[in-house]
Structures are given as structure tokens and as C-alpha cells.
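Box 4.2: Ligand-aware structure prediction
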Amino acid sequence: MVSQASRDKLILIGFMGTGKSSVSRLLADKLGWLRLDADEEIERAEGRTIPEIFASDGEEAFRAIESRVLAGLINRKEPIVIATGGGAVLREENREAMLGGGFVVALACSAERIIARVKADTERPLLQGDVESRVHALLEQRKGIYDFAHFSIDTTELTVEQVVENVLREW
Ligand code: S3P
């Protein structure tokens, strides 16, 4: 596919636990590009962890920081594979910045797989309590929100390698 999207940023979006981190790592390896993770950049910029930001300032404050950091990453001059946090798509300004700034790839996978992946990490502020019901509720709330991507792929039955091959073919 010949995409009209800007070609020097590959931006991965998708719900928590859909494989954005591992896919972005392999993509960056294959392309010889820098890989940056928006969540890590937020923690670096703030000097505190995401759970700390949520706990002391709340989700809206986190979203404002997230938007600022994401815009900064998209505006950088060098080619970058950017892994975003699962909620980075909630703000329209971010969706527009992503679409205008790079090739946006949405990773999806089954709720069961997501739950299996995120269960090990008890840190995610939005998944406190009963992880299964939190995941189902958030998936419902966010239904369709990732559909603006240039390319979407269901990773449930695929290896990381296969996902990367598919992305590079479509890009
Ligand atoms: C969030 C996803 C997290 C992180 C924060 C909020 C979300 O990133 O940004 O906990 O709202 O879906 P990952 O998708 O990398 O877990």
C-alpha cells in the first residue's frame, strides 16, 4: 500500500497488552530506527512513575502530560518508532497529531489475551481491582477509538515477527 502518511514516524496505538512494546522493539530493530515509548518518556520528563502521576495529580493531568510528550515525539526530526500508551488516542488533538505526523498502526487482540498479558503487571492505574472486569469495561468504553489508524491488525494468533512483517508490507 502506498500511504500518504508521513514516513519518518511509525506510531503504534492499541489497548494495553496488545503488544505495542514488543512489536515496536522489533520494528525499530528491523528499520534501524530509534524506538521511543511515550509512557517511558512521560516518566522521564516528570521524574516520577505513571502510577505516581495518577495517584497525586489524577488522570486528566496525566492526559495533559501525555499529549505534550506525544506531540514532542512526533515533532522530532529523526525517524522514530513510537509506542504510545493505550489511552493516548482518547484526545482528538492526539489522534490528529498522530495521523498528520506518521503512519499509525493499531494493534488489537482478544480480551482473553489482553487479560493474560496485563494480569502480571499490577501497576497500571486503570486496571486496579478486578482486572478482568476493568479490561472488559474499558474495551467497551473504547470501542472503535483505535479505528482511525492507517492500518489495523489483530495480533491474537500472530507472532511478533508476523505482526512486524505485516506492518512493513502495509506501510
Ligand atoms: C493507559 C495505558 C498505559 C499507560 C497508562 C494509561 C490507558 O500504557 O499509558 O497506564 O489509558 O490505556 P500501556 O498501553 O503501554 O499499558
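In the box above, the bound molecule is shikimate-3-phosphate. The mean pLDDT is 95.
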